Amino acid sequence: MPSVVFQSPDGTFLVGSDAERRALTDPGRIARQFKNRIGDPTPLRIGDAALTAETVTARFLVRLLDSLPGGRPARVALTHPAGWGRYRLESLRAALSAGGLADVVLVPEPQAAVRAHDAVARLEEGAAVAVYDLGGKTFGAAVVRKLAADRFVPAGPPEELDLGGLDFDEVVFQHVVEALRPGWDELDPMGPGVLAAVAELRRACTVAKEKLSADTEVLIPVALPGIATREVRLGRPEFESMIRPAVEETVAALDRTLRASGTSPHELAAVLLVGGSSRIPLVTQEVSAQLGRAVSPAPNGMAAIGAALEARGVEPKPAVVATATWTRPPLPEAPKPLRPKRMKLIPFVAAGALAVAVAGGLLANNVLTNKAGAESKTGTTTTAPSTTQRSDEPPVVQYVPNQPTAPAPPPRTNTTQPPKPKATTTTTRPSTTVTTTKSTPPPPSSTTTTTSGTTKAGAP
């Protein structure tokens, strides 16, 4: 069914061929190829209604399912381009949920096509398949690998281009317009008769493009008021010369996809050409020349068949109404106000800290020299000023003045005289010498002996 919708003045929503027929007399109430606008906050103007693309898609799907002879099926699967991100998928799922289709299975189009091919060809595990999908508005290239039964995963990042069959239709239409000049420029673009005639001409251009896949020449009928020309000729060579740059671009994208997945053309188990525009003979020729192997278009509806197989084999998830908090991706935040770079203050802070440390060391040198004897009377080592050392804390590094080196006396218990300093390791720094020792406070209920300023635990 064509992806076309028509909104009548009384609110009736028509889809597919019915919408195409009504659009001939009222072209301002039709929308085509709305799938690619999903996630775009700008609504589509269809007659008097303004609807987002995901809402139009949901209504299209509901009308399609309600028109089936057997009614709605138990499960529904909907394919989407492989490159869609989470935002677009959540926007679509929210619109489907609002339309009463909360349990729809969303399947990437390349995986769906390969799944349908596997149902016929029975691919081996590990087999890689290239998918060239040239649809109505977009092109997609992907490499899909079969890991196990009914499990297909992308072998690398897909590529997408914003071109497709509608662009080829426009090429044919512009060819006809050039053939109708100067009479075309004299038409009233807003005249009701002209609008209807132009809509019919566009439809004839699409039909002519499709016929050129089998014929070498077509005649495009023209029925415009005030123009005597009734037919415009178009040959296949002329048509292919007009679309060749776009086709070559798609082939280059397929080659990049193969390289990104680390797969060479001779390693591919199959190459699937899907999408209506992939049936153009030039497409088959260019892809075959690029890959060095013969390829042919896949049967119609490969992605739809794969989606049906996916819906049959996967249990639907619990119905959860998705809520889209945004109708478009969030805008970038406003730039934050500039602040001074704090990194530039680090050298000054470090210099200040060094000066304080040196001054503190000199001051401690004088103070500790005058109180060297008083520090050891209690059997503990003096810590830094205003610091209390507990038994459960790690040793504290002390800074004491230089003292003469002398042999350590024998340990004495509960001595009341100051101990003689022990040999210390002296580290010399610019303009000051500091001595480092470690102190360990005595554990409770033990006899403490002091040897050269170091506290040791004796026998109980």
Describe this structure in words.
Residues 378-388, 413-439, 446-460 have a biased composition (Low complexity). The chain crosses the membrane at residues 345-364. The protein has 460 residues and is an alpha+beta fold. The protein has a domain at 1-71. 34% of the residues lie in helices and 20% in strands. It has helices at residues 16-23, 53-66, 86-98, 109-121, 165-180, 192-211, 236-261, 281-291, 302-313, 346-370, and strands spanning 4-7, 13-15, 30-32, 44-46, 49-51, 77-80, 105-108, 128-134, 139-148, 151-154, 159-161, 217-221, 231-235, 268-274, 396-400, 426-429, 432-439, 448-451, 454-457. The strands form 7 sheets. Strands 8, 9, 10, 11 and 14 form a 5-stranded mixed sheet that branches. It has a 3-stranded antiparallel sheet with strand order 2-1-3, sandwiched between helices. The longest helix is centred in the middle third of the chain and has 26 residues, at 236-261. The model is unreliable at 315-410 and 413-460 (pLDDT under 50).
